[in-house]
Design brief:
This protein has about 325 residues and is mainly beta. The protein contains no helices and 25 strands. β1 and β2 form a beta hairpin.
């Protein structure tokens, strides 16, 4: 049972996690994205739960070392690794202190943005372009999977139609790719949700992002018919020549870095243009409302930078979108005051 209060003790929200068998929380650690990591016990195992700033569960993980394993404390070391400490019953007569070191708290975020809206696919099928962005806002490099699922009009999930791709994001790196999703003619009519995930495929989802599109006409396609007709193509994730925004040092052109991230109150968007282009940088809150924008006259080819000042905004997660000619980049930034 978790309660979030303000500085005067007034309740802001409350949440329950777990089931019916002795689930306890003994430790709370604030994370760089303004969320929290909870440590305790679930069914006799060490238990970690990651929640966001409003208490929504993002992922959980259990560790088993003996009987009646209990995690009593969590801390994060200077190198970004996580240390868990507690007790383990190694035998009916032996209760031991037990410390566990994890490689680090994964701080990878994903954003998926349609290029033009609303998206309406005609009865004969069609396609739509979108950008998919990833950001590592942690203190260490992280290895992630990214994949995309489609939620059908009947509510079931289908896919993945993209991925899972295996990536390694350096600290502070931002990655964005332009791709195109095909929708077959026999897809049922109705409203679809196009949802991207980042985490450890398929069970652990650290973050997700989505948008909706509509398919017109009556289709006969059914789940189980394979991915035929749902082809996904576009720029590679490996930093190749077709990269829109590559990881720092891993691709030819162009590169983009947002630093610092998290930030207070300013951060700098640094990017490289292969040719002169007019640049627009927009920042949105998590509800999709634009809170800041800068339109720059045509900038010369080469490295450029734009400073974003969040002094007038509250702490939280924000989305950004950069358009430079035919190039598009998007991702998440965190303001921590």
């Amino acid at each position: 049972y978790v309660v979030k209060t303000d500085s005067l003790g007034t309740m802001q929200w409350q949440r329950n996690y777990g089931g019916y068998y002795g689930d306890y929380c003994y430790s709370v650690l604030k994370t760089p994205d303004s969320g929290f990591l909870l440590g305790g016990v679930n069914s006799g195992n060490y238990w970690l739960i990651k929640i966001d700033s409003t208490g929504n569960q993002m992922w959980d993980q259990t560790f088993n070392y003996g009987q009646n394993d209990v995690c009593h404390s969590i801390c994060q070391a200077a190198d970004g690794s996580l240390l868990l400490a507690g007790t383990v019953e190694t035998s009916p007569t032996d209760l031991s202190m037990w410390a566990v070191r994890l490689s680090g708290l994964q701080q990878a975020w994903v954003s998926v943005t349609p290029q033009g809206a609303p998206i309406v696919i005609p009865p004969g099928g069609g396609s739509f372009p979108f950008s998919l962005g990833l950001t590592n806002c942690g203190t260490i490099p992280c290895a992630v999977n990214v994949w995309v699922m489609v939620r059908l009009p009947n509510g079931s999930l289908y896919g993945p139609v993209l991925g899972p791709a295996n990536l390694r994001l350096p600290t502070g790196a931002t990655l964005s790719r332009l791709r195109t999703q095909n929708v077959p003619a026999n897809a049922p009519a109705g409203t679809y949700t196009y949802q991207a995930f980042v985490g450890d495929y398929p069970a652990v989802k650290w973050d997700s992002s989505s948008f909706t599109f509509e398919k017109q006409g009556a289709g006969s396609w059914v789940v189980g018919g394979g991915l035929k007709g749902w082809e996904n193509e576009g720029e590679d994730f490996d930093g190749g020549a077709r990269s829109v925004v590559s990881l720092s040092g891993s691709g030819a052109t162009p590169t983009m870095v947002v630093s610092p991230n998290p930030f207070n109150p300013t951060t700098t968007f640094t990017f490289t243009l292969p040719e002169a282009a007019k640049v627009t940088l927009e920042v949105f809150d998590i509800k999709g409302q634009r809170v800041w924008a800068q339109h720059a006259a045509p900038l010369q080819a080469g490295e450029q930078s734009i400073v974003f000042d969040g002094s007038s905004l509250p702490s939280g997660v924000y989305l950004y979108r950069l358009n430079a000619g035919e190039l598009t980049a998007s991702g998440k930034i965190v303001l921590m005051k």
